[in-house]
Amino acid sequence: MIYLYDGTFEGVLSGIYVMFHQKCPVDAARLMHKDRYQYGIFDEVVLVETQVEEAGKVASSIIETFGQEAFRRIGYAYLSEDEAFGTILFKCLKRAYKLGGMAFENLSDPDILALYKCFNAVARESHRMLGLLRFMELEKGVYYAPFDPTYDLLGLMVPHFTERLNDQVWVIHDIKRRKAAFYNGHEVHFGELDPLDTMSLSAREHDYQKMWQGYFEHIAIDARKNPKLHRQMMPKKYWKYLVEKLH
Amino acid sequence: MDALDKLTILADAAKYDVSCSSSGSDRKAVKGMLGNAAPPGICHSFSEDGRCISLLKILFTNKCIYDCAYCVNRASNGDMPRAEFTPDEVVAITINFYRRNYIEGLFLSSGVVKNPNHTMELLVDVVKKLREVERFNGYIHLKGIPGADQRLIDRAGRYVDRMSINIELPTTQSLRLLAPEKSRSEMIAPMGYIKEQIAEYKALSKRFQNTPSFVPAGQSTQLIVGATQEVDLKIIKISEALYNRMALKRVYYSAYVPVGKTEIATPNQLNLLRREHRIYQADWLLRFYGFKADEILTREEPNLDMEVDPKCQWALRNMHLFPMEINRVPFEALLRIPGIGNITARRIMASRRFGPLNFDSLIKMGVVMKRAKYFITCSGQVFGGIDLEPMKLKQQLIDAPKSQTSQMSMFELYPGQFSGGGASYDLSV
User: Fold this and answer.
1) Burial class of residue B97 in the structure, from the number of CB atoms within 10 Å of its CB (0-12 exposed, 13-18 middle, 19+ buried)
2) pTM (2 decimals)?
3) Phi/psi class of residue A30: alpha, beta or left (left: φ > 0; alpha: ψ in -120 to 50)?
4) Which site among B8, B12, B43, B49 would you substitute to test the A interface, given the most A Cβ atoms closer than 10 Å to its Cβ?
C-alpha cells in the first residue's frame, strides 16, 4: 500500500496518523511525497488529506513519548527532502513506539539510524552554512545573502541571524527553491523570490570584498598549502557564493 | 599605504599564530548591539592550507623591537615589508567583515613597538572602541603582550572573550637561546594573574548579578615545536601543567616554519608537520580522554610514534588491558580503545541499554574497525582472524601507503627514467 502526502510537514504527520490508525504493517507500506512518486502499475494508492488537527496529535504524542529533541530530529530530517523520508519516518516511529522513551538514542537499530542520518546531514550542513553564508551590502543599506544549500535550510538560518545581526536589515535568499527570508530590523517574514537579475551594490561593498579576498589569500601558509584538505573542508559546491573564491 | 595593503601585510605577519578558535564564550545577543558568540564556535571559511578561518586574525603592527630567531617579524628580518594600522582602521574592517558574515570576531595580536606598555595600550584602545563606540558584541581574542602592566591586562580582560600569552618555546634554555630578550617569568606571571582574576570575577558573579565578565572564554597559549631539541614527553608534560595549574583552555602547537634567513638548522618539514599532528592527538587525549602525560609517553619511550597515533601507541604498550568487551566496560574504558572517539563512545553507551551490540552496529555507529578490531570483543566474539601479538600488531596498524603516493616517490627517485610527467625533467639537459 502506498500513501501519498502533499509534501508539507503537516501532511507527512497526517500520513503517519492514518497509517497508525489503519495498523499498517511496517514492511508492506510506504509514505511518499505525491509530486515525486512514480505510479507503478500494480500499486495500491491512498491519497492522504492533510489534517492539521491530526498532525498536531501525532506531534504531541511524539514529544510526550520521546521528548523535544526527538521531535527536533524529525523536523530536521524532513528538511533533508529525502525521497524516502515519509517511509523512513513511518518505520522509525513504528520501531520507536515498541522500544519506548529513549528509543531515539538506539542508533544500533537500522530504522532509528536511518532517520538519524537524515537529521544529521541537515544539522551538519546547517551548522556549516551559518559560517559560509555571505552578505553583500546593497544600496540603501540592505544586506543580501544568496545561497544554494543541498537541504532546505532557510528556516534554520533565520533564528541565528535575527539574533546576531539584529540591528541590520537583511534578506537571505534560497536561489534554488526561489524563496527568501526578509528581516526589517524587527521581525522576519518569508516569501517567494525569484533570482535577481541585477543588484546595485553600495559604494563601499567592492572595497570590503577586495579586502576579504586579500585577507583570504594572505592568511594561508604557502609551505603548507593543501588543496585536497581545502576542498574537503569547504566543498566546491559552496564556492559559487563565497566572495573569497570568486576572482 | 591604504587599508588593503596594510591588511595583506598584517595578515601575512599573523598567519603563523595557529589559534583560531572562537568557541567557549556564550555572549548572548542584545537588541541594538551587533553580534553574539556561539559556544561551539563557527568556521567561516577554510584557507588554502586547510585551516579553519573563524576570526579576523591580524597583527596591529609587524614592526617589532625584539629579535626572536623563530619569528618572521623579528627586527633583523630586513626583507620584511612593515605596516601599522590605526585603531579606527581595525575597528572599521572588523565591523564590516562581521556584518557580511565573513568572520566570528577579531583575533588581535601585535609586534612590540616602543615598549610593551605602549603596544598594549594601542590594543586596548581597539577593543574599547569596538565594545563601547560600535557596541560590538561578537568574539574578541586579544594577545597579551609579555611585560605589559597588570593594569592594562586588567582593562583588556573586561572587553575580551579570550586572552592568550604565548609561551613560544618549551623550556627556559631554549627561550634563552632563541629569544634572549624575552623572559619566562614575563609570560608566566600574567597567565597566573589572569587565572586568578577569572576565578575572582566568577565568584563575584555568583553573588552580584551585574558583575562584568572577565575573559569568559578563558586563556590559551602557543608553543613552537621543532625549533629546539625537546622530546615530546617534555612538551606534553608542559601542556598538562598549563591545563592543570594555569587552567588554560587550549595549548596550540606550531611546527617551526623557517622564515627568512636564520641560524636555526632547518629540520625535515614533512616529518615536523606529522609530529605537530601527533602532538595535537596527544593533547586531545589529555583534554578529552582522561589520559595523563605519563601514560601517553614514558621515560623509556619519550617520543610519539610517527607511524601510529598516540592512543594506539599507548594500547600497544598496555596489551594486558585488552581485549575489552564492548558490551560491558565503562565509558572511561571505551574512550581508551583505539578507533573509538568521544561521540562514538557515547553512542555505544546509549545504544547498549537496548541490548547487546554486534560488530555490524558498531561499524554503523562510527567505530573505526581497522584499528578497534584488535582491541575489542563483542559478546565474547573476536572480529575476523587477528593476531594480538604487539609487534606484529603494530605492523598491521600502520597504514599501507596509498598507491598514488608510492607512484609519486617513484618519479622522484628515478627522474631520468620517468621524464614524461612535466617540465621539471627536461630531456634535452
Assistant:
1) buried
2) 0.86
3) beta
4) B49
Task: Give residue-wise pLDDT tens across range B44-69.
Answer: 999 998 899 999 999 999 999 999 88
Q: CA B372 to CA B194: how far, in whole Å? A: 42
How far apart, in whole angstroms, are the C-alpha atoms of residue B182 and residue B172? 10
A174 and A148 Cβ atoms separated by less than 8 Å: yes
Substitution target in A99, A113, A120, A164 with the highest count of B β-carbons within 10 Å is: A164
If contacts are CB pairs under 8 Å, which of residues 40-69 in chain B contact chain A?
Answer: 40, 42-54, 56-57
Within 10 Å of residue A101's Cβ, how many Cβ atoms?
A: 12
Give the tens place of pLDDT for each residue, B3-36.
Answer: 999 999 999 988 887 777 777 788 899 999 999 9
A173 — alpha (psi -120 to 50), left (phi > 0) or beta? Answer: beta
Domains and CATH numbers, chain B: 3-296 (3.20.20.70), 310-397 (no CATH)
Q: What share of chain A is helix, strand, coil (3-state, %, to 5)?
A: 50, 15, 35
Chain A residue with CA closest to B27: the answer is A164
ipTM at complex level: 0.94
Residue type, B110: S
Cell numbers linked to B259: 622564515
Asked if residue B36 lies in contact with residue B138, where contact means CB atoms within 8 angstroms, the answer is: yes
Q: How far is the C-alpha of B306 from the C-alpha of A66, rounded, in Å?
A: 46
A233–B contact, CB cutoff 8 A? yes
CB atoms A220 and B49 under 8 Å: yes
Residue closest to B188 by CA, chosen among B153, B157, B146: B146
